[in-house]
Design goal:
The protein is built from ten helices and 15 strands. It is an alpha+beta fold. The strands form two sheets. Strands 1, 2, 3, 4, 5, 6, 9 and 15 form an eight-stranded mixed β-sheet that branches. Strands 8-10-11-12-13-7-14 form a seven-stranded mixed β-sheet, sandwiched between helices. β2 and β3 form a beta hairpin. The longest helix has 16 residues.
Length: 326
């Protein structure tokens, strides 16, 4: 495609009809050709999200999608109890034959411009080492390294944890420990009682029963809910999933919704004991009871202002559920 220039491309908001050529391009570009869950995963993320349908932009050449960029809608609550509308810069891809035309930058800045005019507050994400420099050149700033914490099941598990320094698998391992979180949290009463123990300080996700039901709903992720008392959700619980990382199995603690640190730590220990996972991992913000700091290992959070200023670095109170997939 050496004769194609940036001027030959059409840049516009994505439309449902674009899926016919966008999805094959995304699969091929992102290495998802053999993933049977990919389209359903995108629908769950971008169309079922209670915060709203994800806005997206495409680059087309002769009517075919050759570049794609989308932003996941999100809502935070501030210390003052105000809602902060946000978007997260997520799925993006360029057809390999069209690389070098600035498609990623063009689509991203087009999205930033239109989202700002629409009144969205900030954009945030946790880009990897390869994509982070590009974001920083487009006005993103490093906010902070998110504080990871772990709890090994025992000395042998500690060895497995240390030696399994590879990316975790996306899809979860099976376990029958606890309850099927999607089923349990579809009950608004259960969700409301657990939300009472959610983080209440700092800039945190706006948790509602609809949010918890959606966040745990995608089947292949196999989220589980372990309650402190099966007959009384008001006593708290943890939402977790098991995922393989090298030779180790880790319990990702995505929500720790406990009334106190003692209960929170006890629940994490129960997850390890009853599942046999080598260790638990989560973010040490909010009620992250029992997790020991893992220095210099957390993802780097970046932000960019849209129609509002991003929170101060120390104000963020994120959980693993806010960042582990998106």
């Amino acid at each position: 495609m050496s004769s194609v220039t940036a001027q030959d491309l059409v840049i516009r908001v994505a439309e449902p009809a674009d899926d016919a050529t966008a999805l094959p391009m995304l699969r091929a570009s992102l290495g998802k050709v053999d993933d049977p869950h990919y389209e359903a995963f995108l629908r769950w993320k971008h169309r079922d999200n209670p915060f709203g349908v994800s806005p997206a932009w495409v680059a087309l050449h002769d009517g075919v999608v050759v570049g794609y960029r989308t932003f996941l809608r999100w809502e935070f609550l501030t210390d003052a109890g105000r809602t902060l509308r946000a978007v997260r810069a997520v799925d993006t891809a360029t057809d390999p034959a069209y690389r070098g035309l600035g498609i990623f930058r063009t689509l991203t800045l087009q999205g930033v411009s239109e989202l700002t005019l629409a009144g969205d507050g900030i954009v945030f994400n946790t880009p990897n080492d390869q994509s982070r420099p590009g974001y920083l050149k487009m006005g993103w700033s490093l906010a902070r390294q998110l504080p990871v914490g772990v709890m090994p099941r025992g000395p042998r598990s500690l060895v497995s944890m240390v030696t399994s320094r590879v990316p975790a698998s996306l899809w979860s391992e099976e376990t029958d420990v606890g309850l099927d979180a999607a089923v349990a949290l579809a009950d608004r009463s259960v969700a409301e009682q657990l939300i009472a123990h959610a983080p209440s300080a700092g800039v945190r996700t706006h948790r509602t029963p609809d949010y918890l039901a959606w966040r745990t709903a995608f089947g292949p992720l196999r989220y589980r809910l372990l309650l402190a008392d099966d007959a009384d959700p008001s006593r708290g619980g943890v939402v977790f999933r098991l995922r393989r990382r090298g030779d180790a199995v880790e319990a990702a603690i995505v929500e720790q919704l406990a009334p106190d640190r003692r209960t929170g730590a006890w629940l994490v220990r129960r997850v390890l004991r009853e599942t046999g996972a080598d260790y638990a991992i989560g973010l040490r913000t909010g009620p992250s009871a029992g997790l020991v700091p893992l220095p210099r290992q957390g993802p780097l959070l970046t932000t960019r202002p849209l129609a509002a200023s991003p929170p101060a670095p120390g104000d963020w109170a994120l959980t693993l559920g806010d960042v582990e997939l998106f």
